[in-house]
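Retro notes - structure team

What went well: the batch runner handled both jobs without manual restarts.
What didn't: labels got mixed up in the shared folder, which is why I'm recording both outputs here explicitly, each with its sequence directly above its tokens.

Job 1
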Amino acid sequence: SEGDAMVMPAIIEYPDIEERTELKTVTFTGAAGLGAVGNVPLFTVTGDILLRYLLVWCSTTLTEALATATIALGLTGATTFFNAATTATDLVAGDFWYDATPTETIGIAVPAGFKDIHVRANLVGTVAAQAVNGGVLNFYAVWRRVSSNGLLVPA
């Protein structure tokens, strides 16, 4: 009836909820954190974020110290969340890395496993078997915060 008011629930708004893009470029040398067997820190996450999408592009072909070097892409605690172990030398200049056999060079639709992911852990690469001692990967993260302290920054 006339005069009745509808009460709307409060909407939480964060001042900078817009999407942001961060770039992490890794030039592999074989040193700790840059291709030695173990973690390659990519992005540090604080709080909760929505990873709108992650794009990984190889600008210089990866090389290995000895045969069998692999690299995986994931989160702290789930190191193959995005990509299982991929032979490092299969990442060739111009490739997008969205699966274990990267061959896409012109363009690709971002696969479901690389977009719209609620994240609260750091993004990492994991080198196994042998060191990756050359090449360059570019990691583009488009994200927005979900919690008031949500933040993603290059590691």
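Job 2
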Amino acid sequence: LHYPLRRQRQMCIRDRAEPGSGGTGPGVGRSAAGAGRVSATPAAEALIARLRAQHGPLMFHQSGGCCDGSAPMCYALGEFYVGDADVLLGEIGGTPFYMSKSQFAYWEHTHLIIDAVPGNGGMFSLDRPTGQRFLTRSRLYEDGELEALPPLGGA
């Protein structure tokens, strides 16, 4: 499922937390070095550490729809095959985060913020039985951030 830029902006506004809530407010995903393409909240970092302790090295792939909506899917490293149709957006918690090139074409103007919230994860994702699920929030890049990003990595 792909959204036009206008709909992405509406989603970014909707997904913002209230200032001071500690989750995904306007300051999340920004650093002195720049925004990067993907970041994680402290709750997501904690869940990643928990899953890594149980399953070993991990990887993420941003689902593009179908059965699990647009959930970030967490797998044991190598259990999901990435290829020429995927791009490496960066790392969260020392874990590579991929997305398909075709989906990235719709999301290239947004910074992805991976959070962990109560609920069940995607049916194939390692977070499913934990009582928490990964959730993708997003915000539009501010002036200058997009130009400052490093080039995308390949699969």
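One thing worth noting from job 2: Residues 1-33 have pLDDT under 50 and may be disordered.
We'll revisit the folder naming next retro.
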